[in-house]
Design brief:
This protein is mainly α. It is 72% helix and 2% strand. The chain folds into two domains: 242 residues, Orthogonal Bundle (MetI-like fold), CATH 1.10.3720; 57 residues, no CATH class.
Length: 338
């Protein structure tokens, strides 16, 4: 009897939690179909009982009365899918290297890279008067080449391994986003002065979002790739098949469930990203989060219009979450590689 009571209490708490999670989504969906008068007169919750549903807010949005809706929607679709594909592809290659190869990075070589990069940039820009893009490109090439060569020497001090490299990838998401976003804005502005338009451009957002999603891709794909049997790759190498062919024709097909799950998770993060789009775009390539934040007028916040924009942004992620949940329940994301 006592066990049944605990079960009922757990069920009751779960239902309360479900209500708190689902109610905001329900309220957004309901508000999107309300006429302005139903919103301004007070809270109403039940269609056809508290108010008469209407599609007027959707008509106003897509007719251009509320500004350009099609542009941000297409920008979000193009940029999010391209950045997700790029970050997952690069992240999978990096994760495979971390799983199959041993890295030994001497701390002094990393410090050498930092000193040459920072000091060289200041010297070229302030002393020699180089432009930011030229100075940055030159010092990165010199610093990276020097660090790789020095890393081959038997230098004293700590030696970082694969786990340290993985942590470095993940640690990129520990910094406050405003730090990297503002630095990227300044870099794009300098590139624009040099004739390379990056602000409010597809390639500028693609680069920023790829860097934003790459740590997640490396972190998630490393666990999936560790499940790929090493014996399969060794058998392929016995048949004189190269590493690149093994990666594309053997490893990637066997990691398909992980690729799908990682792509969905990275897509969700990129789709909802706000700060980079706010700083790096001004009109042409603004995304859905910026559209939602800008849904106001001289009369104040028009919640029916905001709800329409929010609903358009939420629905694709609900679909992604449903597909991911279905894959988890069917066991496609665990134990799929034997």
């Amino acid at each position: 009897m006592e066990t049944a009571g605990w079960k009922r209490m757990g069920l009751g708490l779960s239902l309360v939690w479900l209500f708190f999670c689902v109610f905001p989504l329900y309220f957004v969906a309901v508000t999107a179909f309300k006429p302005p008068l139903a919103v301004s007169q007070g809270p109403t919750y039940i269609p056809f009982f508290d108010f008469e549903p209407t599609l007027q807010a959707f008509r106003d949005a897509f007719s251009g009365l509320r500004g350009d809706f099609y542009g941000p929607i297409m920008s979000s679709i193009f940029v999010s899918t391209a950045a997700t594909a790029t970050s997952v592809f690069l992240g999978t290659m990096a994760a495979y290297a971390l799983v199959r190869f041993e890295f030994r990075i001497r701390l002094l070589s990393g410090l050498t890279f930092a000193v040459i990069a920072i000091g060289g940039f200041v010297f070229l820009q302030q002393v020699l008067g180089w432009g930011v893009p030229n100075a940055l490109g030159a010092v990165l090439i010199v610093a990276l080449t020097t660090a790789v060569l020095i890393n081959r020497l038997p230098l004293p001090g700590p030696v970082l391994g694969n786990n340290d490299v993985t942590f470095w990838f993940v640690s990129q998401r520990m910094f406050p986003p405003i730090v990297s976003a503002f630095a990227l804005f300044l870099l794009y502005a300098e590139l624009g002065r040099a004739g390379m338009t990056m602000l409010d451009s597809f390639w500028g957002l693609l680069l920023a979002y790829t860097a934003f999603g790459l740590p997640f891709a490396v972190w998630l794909m490393r666990d999936f790739l560790e499940s790929v049997p090493l014996e399969v790759e060794e058998a392929a190498m016995v048949d004189d098949i190269g590493r690149l062919r093994i990666f594309f024709q053997i490893v990637l097909p066997m990691s398909k469930p992980g690729l799908i799950a990682t792509s969905m998770i990275v897509l969700a993060f990129i789709w909802n990203e706000f700060l980079f789009a706010l700083l790096l775009t001004s009109g042409k390539w603004q995304t859905l989060p910026i559209l939602i934040a800008g849904q106001n007028s001289s009369r104040g916040d028009e919640w029916w219009a905001i709800s329409v924009a929010a609903l358009i942004a939420i629905v694709p992620m609900i679909v992604v979450a449903a597909i991911l949940g279905r894959m988890m329940r069917s066991g496609l994301l665990s134990g799929s590689i034997k």
